[in-house]
Amino acid sequence: MTIFHITVMILIGIFTGILTGLTGSSGVMVVVPLLNMLLNYPVHDCIGTSLMVDVIAPAAIAYSYHRYGNIALKSGLWIAVASVLGAQLGAKFSDSIPELGLVRIFGIYMVVLGIVIWKKGINREGIALKFKRILKFKTPFQKTITSLFLGLVVGILTGLLGAGGGGFVFIILVFVLNFPIHLAVGTSVLIMAITASSGAIGFALHGNIKPVAGLVIGLSAVLGGTLSAWFANQVKEKILAKAIGITFILLGGIMMAIRLMKANKIIP
Fold this sequence. Notes:
- It contains 11 helices and no strands.
- By secondary structure, it is mainly alpha-helical.
- The protein has one domain (3-263).
- The longest helix is centred in the C-terminal third of the chain and has 27 residues, at 237-263.
- It starts with a helix and ends in a 5-residue tail after the last helix.
- The relative contact order is 0.23.
């Protein structure tokens, strides 16, 4: 591994931490396409490494929330358990998908999400409140079953696409379990780290993780996430959403274009 590789990883990590700190979501949107494009890692290795990053950075953030009493893992336990199982299923299924097919899935996922962020913004509180009006539970059993099902879905997406699922878990905690916003953020970050751990193990068992890259990027992401906390409070949400949306759309489109050109031997 050269100094160039390490420098690129550090920059990817800082960029990842900044976006994660601004959006509260997984760093997969940055780690996977940039490792794939800049260091030419196979996409399965990129996804596995992104899961490792989603263990390191969210764990550090979750500790900060724990210090302020904003972690309630016991209440979100069913989501965590189901997401861990789902992550194993997703990781296993991901390994059976040809790389070009997985690149297309991931690229489309990024472009679609970027368009949604561009148009709707990143006001997750507003989205969660809308869900609360739609879904009303009469018994605790209904909440438990729904939590298990949604946790399983989040886990499968985590294992398949390498996303920690923090944004999805946040919404589940708010509209299913009626968590206050700050408690939901802290708990979702911790669950994301737990779910990502399961997905990372699944990818590691198939040899699809670059541990050194994961460590360097993860530690750099912690630094970037800390720096982004101040910046997020200085920028209007509308401008921030536009910038993040454009970034995701461009990264997803470029990633698909490069892989398609390689598949057609237009570029080596």
